[in-house]
């Protein structure tokens, strides 16, 4: 699972990575991002990508669940298209979560920080949803999609978040056209050869 990630890149770096245009009124939470907090997500709207701050902890629009302890933070890539909780959002509301790295814990409770070799921000695959009734006491929320680990992460944990390569981001965000097999092919482990890790926490302050 992925239970915490890090974002330290500034708005211009995020805009460059995700090909975002107008960032003048944007703001994002930086540092360690935990479940329940709002995070910088990229969504497609009217054919264009934009930044949106969504709450980490998925709740389908038909659900009345608002308790933080009941919200879902991860969804397995292998069952995403079949589970009623995620199926409709997978078809129509895919997103990217901006990150510079993420944490996993070993069975011995040792913490490890994983990031890309090029030190650039990247997009974690996610899906999001909004409540049917705007007045409902629920925020637009997202869940991070996980897959089997690559060779770097496998000794630490049996899952890793899906990272969408930059040249595939437009395909992932295209919420108008849904082609299941093409999207499922993106939900694979990111190459271990392009990642690095360090023990302990990344110092964000």
Supply the key terms:
single chain; 205 residues; alpha+beta; hypothetical protein yedk fold; five-stranded antiparallel β-sheet; five-stranded mixed barrel; 4 helices; globular
Gist?
13% of the residues lie in helices and 33% in strands. The protein has helices at residues 11-18, 84-92, 169-173, 180-184; strands at 5-7, 31-33, 38-45, 48-56, 74-76, 94-99, 101-105, 111-116, 122-129, 141-147, 160-161, 163-164, 195-199.
What does this structure look like?
The protein is α+β, with helices and mostly antiparallel strands and about 200 residues long. It is built from 4 helices and 13 strands. The protein has helices spanning about 10-20, 85-90, 170-175, 180-185, and strands spanning about 5, 30-35, 40-45, 50-55, 75, 95-100, 100-105, 110-115, 120-130, 140-145, 160, 165, 195-200. The strands form 2 sheets. The protein has a 5-stranded antiparallel β-sheet, with no helix packed on it. It has a 5-stranded mixed beta barrel with strand order 3-4-10-9-6. It is globular, with a radius of gyration of 16 Å.
Helix content estimate: 10-25%
What topology, given as strand order, has the largest sheet? 2-1-7-8-13
CATH topology: hypothetical protein yedk fold
- Return the CATH architecture: Alpha-Beta Complex
* CATH superfamily (homologous) name: SOS response associated peptidase-like
List the helices and strands and how they pair.
Layout: E1 5-7, H1 11-18, E2 31-33, E3 38-45, E4 48-56, E5 74-76, H2 84-92, E6 94-99, E7 101-105, E8 111-116, E9 122-129, E10 141-147, E11 160-161, E12 163-164, H3 169-173, H4 180-184, E13 195-199
Parallel strand pairs: 4-10, 5-10
Antiparallel strand pairs: 1-2, 1-7, 3-4, 3-6, 6-9, 7-8, 8-13, 9-10, 9-12, 10-11
């Amino acid at each position: 699972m992925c239970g915490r990630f890090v974002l330290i890149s500034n708005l211009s770096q995020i805009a460059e990575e995700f090909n975002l245009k107008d960032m003048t009124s944007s703001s994002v939470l930086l540092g360690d991002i935990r479940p329940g907090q709002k995070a910088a997500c990229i969504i497609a709207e009217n054919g264009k990508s934009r930044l949106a701050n969504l709450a980490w902890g998925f709740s389908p629009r038909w659900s009345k669940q608002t308790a933080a302890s009941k919200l879902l933070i991860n969804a397995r890539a292998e069952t995403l298209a079949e589970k009623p909780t995620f199926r409709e959002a997978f078809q129509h509301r895919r997103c990217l979560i901006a990150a510079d790295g993420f944490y996993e814990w070993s069975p011995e409770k040792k913490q490890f920080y994983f990031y890309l070799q090029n030190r650039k921000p990247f997009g974690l695959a996610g899906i999001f949803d909004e409540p049917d009734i705007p007045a409902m006491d629920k925020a637009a929320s997202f869940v991070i999609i996980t897959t089997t680990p690559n060779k770097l992460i496998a000794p630490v944990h049996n899952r890793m978040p899906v990272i969408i390569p930059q040249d595939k981001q437009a395909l992932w965000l295209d919420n108008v056209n849904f082609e299941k097999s093409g999207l499922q092919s993106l939900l694979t482990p990111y190459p271990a050869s392009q990642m690095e890790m360090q023990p302990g926490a990344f110092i964000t302050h």
